[in-house]
Here is the input.
Amino acid sequence: MKDAAPQTVYLADYTPFGYGVEDVHLTVRLDPGKTRVQSRIRFAPNPEAQDRDFFLHGEELTLLWAKIDGAAVTPQLSDQGLRCTVPDGPFIWEAEVEIAPESNTALEGLYMSNGMYCTQCEAEGFRKITFYPDRPDVMAVFTVRIEGPHPVLLSNGNPVDSGEGWAEWHDPWPKPAYLFALVAGDLVNHPDRFTTMSGKEVELNIWVRPGDEGKCAFGMQALKASMRWDEEVYGREYDLDIFNVVAVDDFNMGAMENKGLNIFNSAAVLASPETSTDANFERIEAIIAHEYFHNRTGNRITCRDWFQLCLKEGLTVYRDSEFTSDMRSAPVKRIGDVIDLRARQFPEDQGPLSHPVRPESFQEINNFYTATVYEKGAEVIGMLKRLVGDEVYAKALTLYFDRHDGQACTIEDWLKVFEDVTGRDLTQFKRWYSQSGTPHLQVAERFENGTFTLTFKQRTPPTPGQDEKLPQVLPIAVGLLSPSGDEVVPTTLLEMTEAEQSFDFGGLSERPVASVLRGFSAPVVLERAASRQERLFLLAHDTDPFNRWEANRALAQESLIASITGAEAGPDTAWLSALLEVVKNAAQDPAYRALLLGLPSQSELAQALHQRGVTPDPDSIHAAAEAHRQTRAELWQADLPMLARETEVTAPFRPDAEQAGKRALGSSLLAMQSRLDGGAAAQAQFDGADNMTAQLSALTSLITIGAADSALRAFEKQWRHDRLVMDKWFGVQIAYAPPAMAVEMAGLLTEHPAFDMKNPNRFRAVFGALAGNHAGFHRADGAGYDQLADWLIKLDAKNPQTAARMCSAFQTWRRYDADRQARMRAALTRIADTPGLSRDSTEMVTRMLG
Ligand code: 0A1
Ligand code: ZN
Here is the structure.
């Protein structure tokens, strides 16, 4: 257990370590309860540093012995590490420690999952493996010898040699300890090869538990596509002889970019048509790409300290989103990213957990692997690219890769590259890294003497620790349409730098309709009092696919809010008829049409109401959304069968964008149809399904209308041996349960023999689904809050990282009525007051309580 006494680390306090590491030799003798790790590390004083305090991080280690230059030493030990007196010049540190991977339920450091050994060292897990300067600016060449009775023994870099019960690996690229990895187990591989652009042969492997071999082909395809893409688009080729990927069932996050040995949550790599949905396939492709791209943006160029996390994460998320756009549909990807940003990053940035893309302090760095660092971090890269243009961006990236290869860098280094290439001063742009909160952008328009003027005002509400905000640089993409629907001004990038600023478009013969913030060119809340008429016009005519979708989204939101607040009795039927015409347009990508059918989530509606000064009532929101879906189904009844036929896929299953788009549209239509036919069509699809997308969408349609009892039993019987599919079974029953039953359902499922709180995927399947059932979680009697708090307290004792992440389900607590607020505050306080609560969860709940 970590020390819970809060210790805050500040960016401003950064100092380099007093010693550099020339190389590291590790010998790891595996044993479930008594693994021995022997280290031999060559240190030399760091000429760039003044401080000569020789402190090595180390947690939960039993030190057996230590030597300096061959002579035994007795370091001073604490629960954070050790201190030792060392020679003035270079010296060799040797030590042996004992650790117990079998009892490591935190899944950080060396741990066991189904009998296999694996590691997770980012951010600060290496210190649970041996004593070391566990900070990303200490980079070293590692040689690793693994001893154990397992057929497969893997570490970073290239294989050196192996024999019965041992293997040796050498990684020639200096790396920080957080990229160290080791895997041992009874694994089987899916092998392949890749020839790099300079003709180098690379051996590729995806390693899995026996039985999972059939689920590797897609991940391998995605890996090869990523390798080719990084060569073609960024000119970067792979730099080792071998690239290994391992699938692990127990993993706190999606995956990890360890040098040459990526470790994946099995949910983020294993796929087959029968067991994985199209959404799973797309996510796997993106995560494989993300981890592979880290080899350049993260590994070869790493972070100086953990405050710079967005340097690698923002850029790598940006790169993987470009990859997905190229592999699939760019507008569909952009819309999906914005939906996700609004669902996860906006609430974070508009609540008590708000922090800058580059935070300035933390207690537990694991709490900062957030949507803000990742997704807003990627938005910042996108804005920078929009501002400098594609060609200059490409030049800057080449300079970045050349100038900083092998270094541990900062955001200042990154921005300096762009300043050098463009001659621009990026001081103001840098506020995107230091100011937290979502800017609100107001638009007003005027038309006079043939000139159309757009006046923008920006304002960022106060966030924790930041009351006053300065104007940020906003790239605002705008296009103008004539009343007949022709584009009179094509997409133009306006660069807003002031708090208030106007832009003129002259020479117009009639008042145009403005399409503002095309492609969501900046991550802001756009406040635009557009009329319903204008939105309908944009839905029909905008040439920008994002803004066409956005106009529809705004219409959906307005219509729902009008029903929630009682301003309108039912949905806006004129809009629904207009939407139906667009959805019937067979020339449009089905995936895009499916997105048009999506509604803002209930949580998003709650936030929108809150922003208008209305206290959201989760039950009314739920009722309005249900009524809307019912009315829409009834209104479109006559067209549904024809539309559904158009989405039928007769070709053999392919997980590509084309087929996935058809299935996505088909699933939305099926959900509507189920409200009309008592579930007959859904049951038929369920019974005949030959792929998980079809099977699961039928199942959720049936759950929504309360007709899923037999399908749920059949599903469980069919899939009880497949952990990943069973996660879906656990999740959908809670996520789609009627709000009054969600808490009971979650409680019941925790008693199912297959519920295992130690498996993060299973825990998230249940309690992530509960938190996602908006009206169910926010039940007026507080049962949802109490249940989640109970389980988070239990989980925290075993796995602080996952418990702390899931505490964020409470981050929106101040949106709701006084009674719900009091109940959520009580739940948070109860978590906070738990004796022995981890540093991770302590930080999260204290930030939320303010
Ligand atoms: N760097 C990984 C994500 C990751 C972060 C932390 C972890 O443990 C605390 C594990 C994985 C990525 O961006 O994919
Ligand atoms: Zn990453």
Summary: The mean pLDDT is 98. The longest strand covers residues 19-29.
